[in-house]
Amino acid sequence: MQFTSIAFILFFVTVFGLYWLFQKNVKIQNILLLLASYVFYAFWDWRFLALLIGSSAAAYFLGIKIGGNEGNKKRLYLNLGLILAIGTLFYFKYFNFFIDSFADLFGIKNTLTVSIALPLGISFYTFRIISYFLDIKNRKLKPEPDALVFFNYIAFFPSMTSGPIDRGGLLLPQLRKERVFTSENGADAVRQILYGAFKKLVIANSITPITQGIFQNYEHLSGSTVAFGAILFLFEIYADFSGYSDMAIGLAKLLGLKITKNFAFPLFAQNIAEFWRKWHISLTSWLTDYVFTPLVIQFRDYEKKGLIAAIVLNFVLIGIWHGPRYTFVLFGLLHGLYYIPLILTNKLNKKKKFSKSFPTIPEMGNIFLTMVMVCFAFILFAAPTLTDAVGMYGRVFSLSFFSIPQFIKVKILGFIFILVLIDWMNKDQEHGLEISRFNPIMRRALYVFLIFMIMYFGVFGNGNFIYEQF
Question: Quick one: what percent of the chain has pLDDT higher than 90?
Fold first, then answer.
């Protein structure tokens, strides 16, 4: 049941109506919300609903135990919770990868590989559970006593399949108290959903067949075409993933809840550190708090070398989080290595602000260089195997790079231009269609334009989002 499907629209309209019918009764609202989340999840694959409920129940009881004990008992329950959460994720997502790798390393015939389906959203809700345990351990959060509230936090359907990865400190307090629906928040939510749908249906879905055609046939294409495919893939994955995030945040707003912002116009980042502060924010901030910061403290005696090691390890984990592929590991490693010049020149934490309403030549140069680095790394992200990645890079670094690329479509370039223009106009706002400051005529004209683009150019056949696979 995709956000862009008729089935989901009917589902959400029904949930929305029933939910606000009981505006004064938080408990009934939470019961309806949890039932809706479980129906939404079961619609994908009912077999894994028991795993979601079981994981929630174990996390609920272990959270209470972690918060209610000290010393060795506290560590025991914390370790048990982390082992259960990470172990479940490892089994479903990485078991076969490690078994195959071990067998290949030692030349052993592998008889242990089994067919394991990946439960929907397991990476996202597992990270919610882990952060919940660690926040209780660090006294940033108290255990949630209300099981209904906690189960909703884990299974909240707008952010179930592709995030954002919400923290307990943000969502749990909102689920405990009465929610209020206002026309202002409702209008803003619909605007954000509209922009997310435009990004997904018009841009991402239009680019997908082109990038698939390029990456699946790279051996027969010029280096310039493969490079062009990498550029298109950046816009595809940005439009797809940020489009999902926009819709998820908008749907949550319609239910009176605020969830984590996941993108902050990364296409205008002027260095790689700024890019990652603006891209998949909920994951990068999660790893910063629970992995990078502890590593920096651990390596503090090694000064810049320790900082480099912490960042590289952090990004390797980002790569591994995406899935059991060596290309993902190298994708993370390469991004970590990109940070080294910033660290050595003491520019890691310097934030660049645009000096004018239009970027200057040096600012455009910074953006261009950053996007080239990102696109270069995204070849690893797109390649299914190391052999394919090497082959793609080989084509890019061949003399055919200087030829005219194939698959250029003016229509696609026009879509990308519209995306960049809208993002640029609203780069200092909360989201890409935060245009309440515009006059009413301009607002309505833009709404009509985006709806027309969706109805006329939207590709409705591919409702799947890229990050559902993670």
Answer: 68
By the 8 A CB rule, do 332 and 318 touch? Answer: yes
| For residue 69, pLDDT beyond 90 | no
Q: What is the pLDDT of residues 411-421, one digit of tens each?
A: 999 999 999 99
Helices (H) and strands (E) in the chain, counts: 20, 0
Greatest Cα-to-Cα distance within the chain, rounded to the nearest angstrom: 69
Amino acid at 274: E
Residues in the chain: 470
Helix, strand or coil for residue 271?
coil
In DSSP notation, 220-276 reads GS-HHHHHHHHHHHHHHHHHHHHHHHHHHHHHHHHTT-------S-GGG-SSHHHHH
Q: Are 335 and 377 in contact (CB under 8 A)?
A: yes
Mean pLDDT score, 298-320: 90
Distance, C-alpha 30 to centroid of its chain:
25
Q: How many CA atoms lie within 13 A of 330 on its CB side?
A: 17
Query: Can you give the pTM of this predicted structure?
Result: 0.92
Q: Which two tokens stand for residue 217?
A: 């046939």
The residue whose two tokens read 């982390």 is 82
With cut-offs at 50, 70 and 90, classify the pLDDT of residue 56: very high
Residue 109 has a pLDDT of 56
Contact between 257 and 175 (Cβ < 8 Å) = yes
Cis peptide bond upstream of 324, omega within 30 = no
Residue 231 C-alpha from the chain's centroid:
19
Give the C-alpha distances (Å, rounded to integers) separating 23 from 11, 14, 222, 258, 285. Answer: 19, 15, 59, 17, 33
CA–CA–CA angle 392, 395, 398 (5° rounding): 150
